[in-house]
Write a structure and sequence with these properties.
heterodimer, A: Immunoglobulin-like, Immunoglobulin-like, 4 domains, 4-stranded mixed beta sheet, disordered N terminus, B: mainly beta, Methylamine Dehydrogenase, Chain H, 4-stranded antiparallel beta sheet, 28 strands, 9% helix, globular
């Protein structure tokens, strides 16, 4: 029996081992794809055929293997199923060639070089009619190739035929030395563009410089006007004028920084003495300014808090209820879909009076109608993926009731919303906003939508004031849309965009309009949202980004003119009333900022910050980790919500008489 | 004779030694409302999250990791993030480090995907869940360079998608237009389309019964009707197919008819529906055991999972899941266990229920982040018992 056992064991083991070690008929590793020609160099517009096939290790062609050709950049170089390659744009590209096989597919990456078309034209453009000796002007040089495409990837060499008349520099400036003629030549790959210039005698003998004031405070904007005059006292209108400044700060440890614009506007950051100089060629004139500290500091006292310490808090709104008392609503973030209602009549004794839970993970935004009767909250992360908005009766904030849930076209999640004149402006999946009529809150109905048509557009927020909807669209910036103002014939049913401004960082997250009573200017304040270090859900965080002040007084030519940036912190939501800004700077707490008068430059450096406060709660959801979401001025108190601790209230102390020193934090 | 039996036992032990000394199973599962992916380890008795990977780039937004797949060679896993600005993103991670290797932008709400072993290409549906009811697409991506090679237009809200066993066909179902699409994975074009709506003919017949003579078409403003855009959208699919899975051997695919509480069997040779399985409420995902004997389906609205004998067409068991919203399924290569992701509601965590396909009972449940969704089997390893 022992023998028979051994007799059986061996064949069985062989069978078992064989099952796992059966070799394929041929090794796929010995096969490869061969392509003819080996290299492909093409011109734009050209079509050439390549042929790929599978070979064994000896280079012998394997029959009946399928070959597929695929382009990695099909708008630049295309390839069809037969291997016909078409070049659309210059550059280095690659095709992927695949021979499919159930056991192991073969793949080859094939390089295609599409040559840049030759340069055909170099132009020196926009040269002024008069070039005065002793002045400098920038040269605008354009290079074009055979496809009539402008080329910015080429190196331009610039020279002057007579450098004693005029010479050039590496930054493409022309420096006019003395009267006479010369030829400026711009060369690229042997193609040249020439410009004959005549330098004429500079008639300017004197610069007159005036300003709208002799002195002021940091942050005040001064307007300098320089006039170039000839020896007869005539104005030389086209004489190029450059403004510069230097200064000495009162505080010897500070730099006398500031900003001067090409049109003569100047603002100082530091107290001290500044000299502003206007130059035209060898002539110049200077004026001095004495700048005093802005001296707007005040104390901001903590009044009360409504603690939320079992989840993150999001946005909030404070309003006067129909009973005359004051109430607040706060949302929650990344939690269980709860919104809390508060009695804030006594800001020193904020009381949680009710809550509503909806099917959501985040109630990011909460808003109240103008009459204080309707609350609308946003939903994200609903378990049935039908997010949308929830409309709540807050006539009695102690007994709130859901009136309706509206999800049509909003299933992708509503991140932000706004209520204005019986309409809800609700974002949809970060792509567009819908305008929803809630005259009958039980039966909301969409009346229109607004969506950009730019490639890859996205939206983060919308705010409505005076019949204008301000949408914040990340890299597409702010869009001003007439939804009833009349400026562009728009209405809620027919939103009409009429102005736009975008800035390079693409971090545009929120907008607040600001009409400056003291200057008559119209600004939009555009806020970034940036998390340079990510977001730790269970610990402290540091944000980045700042507020961009854009002068929209001329709607067709908006000018980004000022910024408010807190070092080491990042902007989020904010509120403006009269000429004061209340802004949440995440880990930097609430900042109160003087935005009176004309604005220009770095408002923080200018000492325009009036006060700040940090909502730090030892018993917070994340203890002692201020991360302020937003701020709202309401009946003299500053309310603010904090991601890690809930709802807070503070009060600004009255202004002190001028020159009174106060102790600040 | 006894000794022979012992010998067989010994050899069986050698072959399946992993099971005797303990077998560990690993799956990746997404938490859609947490922006996390968890690695679940199951040792035959206990399931637990052994690693949690934070995913996405927008800290204050929910980006929604939805679809997940592992490359055939097991070296990388791929993740679709549904929400972007506005387009979603496909991420490539290393299974060794669970760190991002590369990424590329796809269409609106990219969802399910798989890599063909025959072409090496990745095929991903762009679900466009929250968009207009217009045809969406399947993106074909070279996973080596993470380049989108082609976008193939299919139906409205394509969700479930899987590759045929030979790797040469990709099947997807469009939830709102009620269609099954077969894409030639090599030519990158649609080879066949099948309408899955049972009442389509009836609807068509009803339309024929309308008395068009009573309609004054001349007074209708057809210019405002946008027939081109809505031409295919006169109806929403009643079937609402949410998933399709090819059988490993029988040349059929199985489709979750989420709207009709049925699973449809489509014969690929005849290209028609050949069987219908009456299921629990809201069948959502369907998988088939590698040995081809059992079909596992989540019933999303019931919070349950059904296990079926495919050949007999009978439901072997309806297993109540640990939470209320059952979602995805991954089955172990030994056909022994089904790993079912269960979303949860509101602040509830998501979970993964491990169902023993022999005993038809839940063995254990592992909790993960909120809204557990996409799930994929990663690997089996010998345990250390």
């Amino acid at each position: 029996m022992e023998r028979s056992l051994h007799k059986l064991a061996f064949p069985l083991l062989v069978v078992c081992l064989s099952i796992s070690t059966i070799l394929p008929a041929f090794s796929q590793d010995e096969l490869s794809i061969k392509v003819e020609p080996e290299n492909l160099v093409m011109n734009v517009g050209e079509k050439l055929k390549i042929k790929a096939y599978v070979v064994d290790k000896n280079g012998k062609r394997i029959k009946d293997r399928k070959i597929g050709y695929y382009s990695r950049k099909r708008r630049a170089v295309g390839v069809d199923s037969t291997g016909l390659v078409t070049a659309y744009a210059p550059g280095s590209y690659s095709l992927i060639i695949i021979s499919p096989d159930e056991k192991k597919y073969l793949r080859s990456d094939y390089k295609v070089e599409v040559s840049y078309p030759p340069i055909t034209k170099v132009e020196i453009q926009q040269v002024p009619n008069h070039i005065y000796a002793g002045t400098s002007i920038p040269l605008n040089i354009k290079v074009f190739d055979k496809m009539d495409m402008e080329r910015k990837d080429v190196s331009v060499e610039l020279s002057s035929a007579n450098k004693t008349i005029a010479n050039t520099d590496q930054f493409f400036n022309l420096h006019a030395r003395k009267p006479g003629k010369t030829t400026i030549t711009a060369s690229v790959e042997g193609i040249t563009g020439k410009l004959n210039v005549e330098i004429i005698e500079n008639p300017v003998v004197r610069i007159e410089l005036t300003s709208n004031a002799e002195g002021g405070r940091t942050g005040d904007v001064f307007h300098f006007t320089a006039t170039a005059l000839d020896k007869k006292g005539n104005k030389i209108e086209d004489a190029p004028i450059t403004y510069t400044y230097h200064g000495v700060a009162d505080d010897v440890s500070s730099s006398a920084s500031g900003l001067v614009k090409d049109d003569g506007r100047f603002v100082a950051d530091e107290a001290g003495r500044y000299t502003i100089t206007a130059s035209s060629g060898p002539f110049s004139a200077s004026k001095m300014l004495q700048i005093a500290p802005r001296n707007v500091k005040r104390k901001l006292d903590l009044v009360g808090k409504g603690l939320v310490n079992d989840k993150h808090t999001s946005d909030f709104w404070i309003w006067e209820g129909v009973d005359g008392k004051d109430y607040g609503v706060t949302g929650t973030w990344g939690a269980d879909g709860t919104a809390y209602f508060w009695d804030v009549t006594d800001p020193a004794n904020i009381q949680k009076i009710d809550s509503i839970q909806v099917d959501a993970r985040t109630v990011n935004d909460v808003k109240i109608s103008e009459d204080g009767k309707i609350c609308v909250i946003s939903r994200e992360g609903a378990s049935n993926r039908k997010n949308g908005i929830v409309i709540i009766d807050v006539t009695n904030p102690r007994d709130t009731k859901i009136i309706s849930t509206f999800t049509e076209n909003l299933t992708g999640g509503v991140h932000n919303l706004f209520i204005y004149q019986n309409h809800v402006y609700a974002l949809s999946a970060g792509q567009k906003y819908y305008i929803i009529n809630i005259e009958d809150p039980k039966q909301p109905r969409i009346v229109s939508k607004f969506e950009l048509d730019t490639p890859g557009h996205a939206i983060h927020d919308v705010w409505v004031e005076d019949g204008i909807a301000y949408s914040s669209n990340w890299s597409d910036g702010v869009y001003l849309v007439d939804v009833g103002n009349g400026i562009a014939g728009g209405s809620p049913e027919n939103p009409v965009a009429f102005a736009n401004y975008e800035y390079p960082s693409g971090a545009h997250h929120a907008t607040f309009p600001f009409k400056s009573k003291s200057t008559g200017k119209f600004y939009t304040v555009l806020g970034d949202e940036i998390f340079p270090y990510g977001l730790n859900l269970n610990g402290p965080n540091v944000a980045g980004g700042f507020l961009h002040f854009v002068d929209f007084t001329d709607l067709e030519n908006p000018e980004e003119i000022a910024r408010f940036e807190v070092p080491g912190a990042g902007s989020h939501n904010y509120w403006i009333e009269d000429e004061t800004l209340y802004v949440a700077f995440y880990n930097g707490g609430v900042r109160v900022v003087d935005i009176s008068g004309e604005l220009m430059g770095d408002l923080y450096k200018q000492g325009r910050e009036i006060a700040w406060i940090l909502p730090s709660a030892a018993d917070g959801y994340i203890p002692n980790s201020p991360f302020t979401w937003g701020a709202q001025l309401y009946k003299g108190h500053i309310f603010y919500s904090d991601w890690n601790s809930g709802l807070w209230a503070a009060k600004l102390e009255p202004e002190k008489p001028e020159n009174t020193k106060i102790q600040t934090k | 004779m006894k000794q022979i039996r012992n010998l067989f036992f010994l050899i069986t032990c050698l072959i399946f030694s992993g099971q005797l000394i303990g077998q560990d199973y690993y799956v990746y599962v997404t938490a859609e409302s947490e922006d996390e992916v968890a690695v679940i380890k199951f040792d035959g008795k206990t399931a637990r999250a052994v690693e949690t990977i934070k995913v996405g780039v927008w800290p204050a937004e929910i980006e929604g990791p939805h679809g997940i797949t592992v490359a055939p060679d097991g070296k990388h896993w791929y993740l679709t993030m549904a929400h972007g600005n506005p387009y979603g993103t496909l991420y490539k991670y290393s299974t060794e480090t669970n760190e991002v290797v590369d990424q590329t932008t796809l269409g609106l709400f990219p969802a399910t995907m798989q890599i063909s072993k025959a072409t090496g290409l990745l095929y991903c549906v762009n679900f466009n869940l929250h968009g207009d009811m217009v045809p969406s697409s399947v993106s074909v991506v070279d996973p080596e360079t993470m380049t989108e090679l082609k976008r193939i237009t299919t139906g409205a809200m394509p969700h479930g998608s899987r590759i045929s066993p030979d790797g040469m066909k990709q099947y997807s179902v469009a939830m709102m237009s009620g269609e099954l699409f077969e894409i030639d994975a090599f030519k990158l074009e649609i080879s066949r389309t099948l309408s899955l709506d049972e009442d389509e003919k009836e609807m068509h017949a009803n339309h024929q019964k309308m008395d068009h003579s009573q309609m004054d078409h001349s007074k209708m403003d057809h210019s405002k009707m946008n027939h081109q855009k809505h031409g295919m959208q006169h109806k929403h699919s009643k079937t609402k197919p949410t998933w399709v899975i090819p059988h490993p051997t029988n040349n059929k695919v199985y489709i979750a008819g989420n709207g009709i509480n049925k699973i449809l069997e489509v014969d690929l040779k005849e290209w028609k529906i050949t069987r219908k399985f009456e299921t629990g409420k809201g069948p959502y995902n369907v998988e088939i055991t590698p040995d081809g004997t059992k079909m596992v389906a989540t019933y999303k609205s019931d919070g349950a999972t059904g296990v079926w004998d495919i050949e007999k067409g009978t439901e072997l068991a309806k297993v109540q899941n640990s939470r209320k919203v059952s979602h995805g399924i991954a089955i172990s290569p030994d056909s022994r266990y089904a790993f079912v992701s269960v979303e949860g509601i509101g602040g509830e965590p998501g979970s993964v229920d491990v169902i023993d396909l022999e005993t038809l009972r839940i063995v254990d449940t592992a909790n993960i982040g909120k809204q557990a969704g996409g799930i994929v089997f990663w690997k089996m390893e010998k345990g250390h018992q």
